[in-house]
Every structure is written in structure tokens, then in C-alpha cells.
Amino acid sequence: MVHKTVGWIALLLIAMAPIYGLAWMVLSLAGKISQADHLFLIILVFWAGYAYLRWVKPPVDHLFQRRAYSRSKVLKQLGEDMCNLQATSDVANQLLTAIANALYPERISIFLKWESSDDEATNPPKTGVAWRKFEYYRGKVTTGKALVPFADPAIQRLVEIGSAVEVSQIGSDEQFEGVRKEAEAYFNERHIQVCLVLLRKESLIGMIHLEEKRTLQPYSRGDLEFLEELRVSAMVGLSNALLFEKVDLQRQALATSQEQLRLLGERLAQVKEEESARIARELHDELGQLLTSLKIDASLLERRLEQDANANPESVERAGTIAEVADRSIGTVQRITKELRPSMLDGIGLVPTIEWMVSEFVKRTPIEVAFDGHIQSPDLDRSLATAVYRIIQESLTNVARHAKATKVSIALSEKQRVICAVIADNGVGITEHQLRHHDSIGILGMTERARPFGGIVTVKGNPGKGTTVALNIPIQTQR
Ligand SMILES: Nc1ncnc2c1ncn2[C@@H]1O[C@H](COP(=O)(O)OP(=O)(O)OP(=O)(O)O)[C@@H](O)[C@H]1O
Ligand SMILES: [Mg+2]
To answer: Which residues form the domain of 416?
Structure first.
């Protein structure tokens, strides 16, 4: 940027040197020139250069360059650009540049509807709605917002006409019958020379204004034909860009809701874990204590009755049974407590805890289980170990509940700091439809438990041959 400015200044100095020399010669001929005259001359020459670029060049371009543009070349290039560009701002920029280079208007404005305000049909705007505005003025493009007065009858008529309209048409064209005054007011207030409406399925998506405070050269029939062709390209380019924008917005919304769903899943797993721990505590502290005192009392009663010679033998037997049932109940509570809160994970580690789970499973079901577990890392994070434990637990529960299997194998291993678990049964095999079943949360929960650690769970079913659940969970990416 800086070297470009320096370059321009150098070029200007070289260009100004002969002018300056000429002026110096004239002044010298008129008499001696002083130091102050030199300074005055330099300022004058620079001012003349600035004035030329600022005030003389644009109207000169406007008058002479406009005649020189190649309509077909500009339109061909624009057509190609409209196919390639996706962002609305890029399309608008390209349109502004094409119009500016071809017709040199003082100012060009493109108004464009926000895709998010697409609810026009259900909620028609009353007075005006803020649209995006892209403006070209003195070689620069600026973006902003502008209020478009929809309800203005002039705009509605322009939409009905649906082609490029030049200001001089309004006075004589019968298409403006009934709204001539409003249309004149609309054009004059904004210094519009030509207005192009951009439509999609006959509804307004944008407008282009070519504006000039003083008209140096009226727009010819050729200019208007050019603008009409440009309008068609603009409608295609901008419609596409707006659609891309809409799809992008929807994609973003989808990504956000997927992220929320993921967080919800994680939270669900966490809440489930906390709730299980709470129930386990209650069971252990409350029910466990009560059953223990019941057992002690029943045993005491049994012993007393045994010592009492008059005691009914049936009562002695009943007291013994009560003590035995209380004892069995204590065992059950202990097992449920362990299942709910595998505190063994902290004590003896993942593999022995799973061995215990398998032994409990075998006691309660007729299914044969083959377990093979080897984990080298001694530093397994508690939450990671819990996730692996719960995923295997859910897989085994599913085998017992749904698989109608006779055998299940569990292989737990660690390779390059990745824990792999494969649970395979020889049952009926899960179907694609069951995999996508949304009422149940077992399989979904397995995926959600693995995800926070960067783990993946895949479930595959082979009809009549069984189901395989595979878990891969890296150790290093623990939170
Ligand atoms: N090992 C398996 N063999 C055959 N079908 C299975 C197996 N595991 C799961 N399924 C099928 O997939 C479905 C979804 O399993 P998922 O664990 O998600 O839910 P669920 O066990 O029915 O309920 P829950 O939410 O209590 O776990 C099951 O209803 C079952 O039909
Ligand atoms: Mg399940």
C-alpha cells in the first residue's frame, strides 16, 4: 500500500515536471521569480493535478469512455463471473464494477434483500424494510443498510413493468399511467437516471439505481439494452448468491443444533452417572443398614428360640429363614450398588471390574461369556474407565435382552494408547432399522459416552449370525 502511494507520487512528479518547467519559463520571461513564487508554483501544479483527477476526469470519462465500451465483452465477462461467484458481496461488487466501467455514472446503488427476512409472504412489510446496500461512488464500493419503501406505488409499478426504466420514460410512457407523480418523485428525490428491478419468481429481491445529480449525457437506447441484459445476469447471479447464503445459514443452524444435541448427550451421561451414584449411596446406607439389623435380630431370635425348650420348632425354622433371606437381600443390595456405582474401578481397575461384571452376568443368564482383557496403561482416568465399563455393560445388557444368543465374547485390549473393546454375540443380529430406532437410548448413550474422549462406537448386525459392538477410545485425549 505504502510503496504504491510512493509510486503514484513519483509518477505525478515526473508528469508535473514539464508543466512546472513551462510555468517557470513563462514567469521568467515576465520577470525575475522569487523563492515564494516557486512555492506558489509547486502548490498550484499539485492542485491542478488533483482538480483534474477529481473534477475533470470523471465527466470526461463519462462523456467519451462511455461510447467506447464493448457491450458484448463486458456482458460475457459478467456472465462468467455470475456463474463462479457465491458470496452476495462479490456478485454485487462485480456488478458495480461492470456498470461503472461501462457507463461511468456518478453513483450506483444496489439494494439487496436479506435472506433471513424472507417471510414477506406471511408478514408483508407495511412501510419499508432495511435491505443491504452496496454503493459505488468515486471508485469505491461501500456496504451498509438502507430502507426500501415497499409500499411506494412507484416501486410496485416498477416491479410490474419488470425491465430497465430510464427517468425520461416516466413523463411519456403509458405504463406509468396513474403513478406518474409518485414515480417522478421517487426518481428525482434520489437522482435516479436508470432503475433496474431484480426479481425472483416475480417478487422483488433487489434493485439497482444509476444516479447522477447533473446529467452530462442521457442514456442511449444501446445503454438501456446493455443494462437490460446486465439485469438478467444480475438476477441469476444474485438469486444464486442469496440461495447459497440461505443454505449456509441453515447449515450453520444445523451445526449449532447438532452441537447442542452432543452437549445434551454428554450431560445426560453425566447426570445418569451422578444419579446412579446417588441411588447406590441411598441403597447402601439406608436399605443395607436396615437389612443388616434385620439379619442380626433374626439370628438372635433364632438362637433364643433354639435355647427355649418350649419354643415351637416351626418358629425356630421361620426365624432361620428370615435371617437367611435378609442375608441374601444384603448380597443383592451389594451387587446392585456395585453395578450402579462401580467403585471397584478405583480400587482394582478396569479389567478386574469387568471380570466381576462378567461373573455376575453368568450367574444370572444362561449365556456363555468369554472375556479376554489386557490393558497396559496403569494411569487410566476414572471417567474414561467408567465410559468403557458402561459401554461394555450396556452391550452385555443388550445381548441378554435382545440377542437370543448362546455365546458372547468380550475382547478388551490396548494398542498404541487406544483402548479397543469388541463385544460379539451369536444371536439374531441387530437390523439397520433397529440401529436407527430413536425411542431407545442405549446405543445412542454408548456413542455419547465415547465422544468426549474422541472415541467411536460402531454397531454392526449380521442377520441370524449375531451383533458386534466395537469401541475405539484413545487414552491421550482425555479431558
Ligand atoms: N445385541 C443385540 N442383538 C440384537 N438386537 C439388538 C442388540 N442390541 C440392540 N439390539 C436392538 O437394537 C435396539 C436398540 O438398542 P438400545 O440399547 O439402543 O435400546 P434398548 O435396549 O431397547 O433400550 P434401552 O434404552 O433401555 O437400552 C433394541 O431395542 C434391539 O431391538
Ligand atoms: Mg439397551
So the answer is: 347-479
CA–CA distance, 308 with 294 (Å, rounded to integer): 21
Q: Which residue has the higher pLDDT, 220 or 467?
A: 467
Same domain membership, residue 101 and residue 42: no
Q: Residue 397: nearest ligand to its CA?
A: 2
User: What's the confidence (pLDDT) of residue 438?
Assistant: 64
pLDDT of residue 477: 47
Nearest-CA residue for ligand 1 atom 24 is 442
pLDDT score of 337? 87
**Which residues sit with Cβ closer than 5 angstroms to ligand 2, an ion?**
398, 442
| 149 and 10 within one domain | no
Answer yes or no: do 50 and 130 share one domain.
Answer: no
Dist CA 234 CA 208 (whole Å): 10
For ligand 1, atom 10, name the residue with the nearest CA.
Answer: 430
Q: How far apart, in whole angstroms, are the C-alpha atoms of residue 431 and residue 438?
A: 14
313 is a domain residue? no
Beta bridge partners of 38: none
Q: pLDDT tens digits, residue range 95-126?
A: 999 999 888 899 999 999 876 554 444 444 55
Ligand 2 midpoint to CA 27 (Å):
101
Whether residue 461 sits in one domain with residue 351: yes
Domain boundary among 206, 229, 248: 248
CA of 208 to the centre of ligand 2 (A): 61
Strands of the sheet with 140-148, listed across from one edge: 140-148, 129-137, 107-112, 203-211, 192-200, 165-166
Using most ligand atoms within 8 A of CB, pick from 390, 399, 408, 434 the residue to mutate for ligand 1.
434
175 shares a domain with 95: yes
Residue 414 phi, psi dihedral angles, 5° rounding: -130, 125
> Residue 374 Cα, ligand 1 centroid: separation in angstroms?
27
Average pLDDT, stretch 410-426? 95
| 67 confidence band (pLDDT: 50, 70, 90) | low
Q: Which of 276, 367, 430 to mutate to test the pocket of ligand 1 (most atoms within 8 A of CB)?
A: 430
pLDDT (average), residues 149-155: 85
Cα separation, 197 vs 238, in Å, equals: 12
CATH code for the domain in which residue 243 is found:
3.30.450.40
